[in-house]
Design a protein that fits this description.
Number of strands: 5
CATH class: Alpha Beta
Radius of gyration: 17 Å
Number of helices: 8
Strand content: 15-25%
Catalytic activity: Endonucleolytic cleavage to 5'-phosphomonoester
Strand order of the largest sheet: 3-2-1-4-5
Pfam families: RNase_HII (PF01351)
Number of domains: 1
CATH architecture: 2-Layer Sandwich
Helix content: 40-55%
Shape: globular
Largest sheet: 5 strands, mixed
Subcellular location: Cytoplasm
Distance between the termini: 34 Å
Binding site for a divalent metal cation: 26-27, 125
Structural class: alpha/beta
Protein name: Ribonuclease
Length: 215
């Protein structure tokens, strides 16, 4: 199947409708059983120009290609940020609330770096707005299914967030050896579940999620 590259068409329409900035937004690690959930943001304006050649949704790129693309995507955007919510927070608050919490933390980073949040519209991947309920004074948010595939701002956010989270999992693998996080990045492979059965869960595991497939 041929997958088209993302473009800036949707973002351009949002600029034309009055948004000075578009903030592409995507989450990474929603379905993992270990490690944080991450939300990436990428701020673009109407003068963004062509995105880096080869930019795509992070799921469509190899790990090596993502590592190469992440700094290019960050340099193309005006600003980028990645917010996190920990495994303990996922257990305590639930994944939807933690997506909002991580998104809020990323927006705070942008605000502290001087981003004009009130003049922006957030373009969020998916059909459900989990960001607005987490914010006391939310910016405008619009959702779009497959925005990470079709919209270059969201693809950039996806790649930046994925690389950031993957690096955290690789670093954590050295502190909590045996779970294979350098390879599985905290997702629930059969080998990962076998390691949990052998070693027990770590502080980085989402303990409310530790049911093997079919259990």
């Amino acid at each position: 199947m041929v997958v088209a590259d993302p473009d800036y068409t949707v973002e351009s329409s949002l600029h034309a409708a009055g948004a000075r900035f578009v903030i592409g937004c995507d989450e990474v690690g929603r379905g993992a059983i270990a490690g944080p959930v991450a939300v990436g943001l990428a701020v673009l304006d109407a003068a963004a120009g062509e995105h880096p050649a080869g930019l795509r949704d992070s799921k469509l790129l190899s790990e090596k290609r993502r590592e190469t693309m992440a700094p290019l995507a960050a340099a193309w955007a005006r600003q980028v940020a990645v917010g996190l919510a920990s495994a303990e927070e996922v257990d305590r608050l639930g994944i939807t609330a933690c997506l909002g919490l991580a998104g809020k933390r990323a927006l705070v980073q942008l605000h502290e770096a001087g981003a004009h949040i009130t003049e922006s519209i957030v373009l969020l991947d998916g059909s459900f707005d989990w960001l607005t309920p987490a914010l006391a004074h939310p910016p405008r948010v619009t959702t779009r299914v497959k925005a990470d595939r079709d919209c270059s701002s969201v693809a950039a956010a996806s790649v930046v967030a994925k690389v950031h989270r993957d690096r955290l999992m690789i670093e954590a693998d050295a502190r909590y050896p045996g779970y294979g996080w350098s390879g599985n990045k905290g997702y629930g492979s059969a080998e990962h579940f076998e390691a949990i059965a052998r070693l027990g869960p770590s502080d980085w595991h989402r303990r409310t999620w530790l049911r093997a497939p079919g259990a």
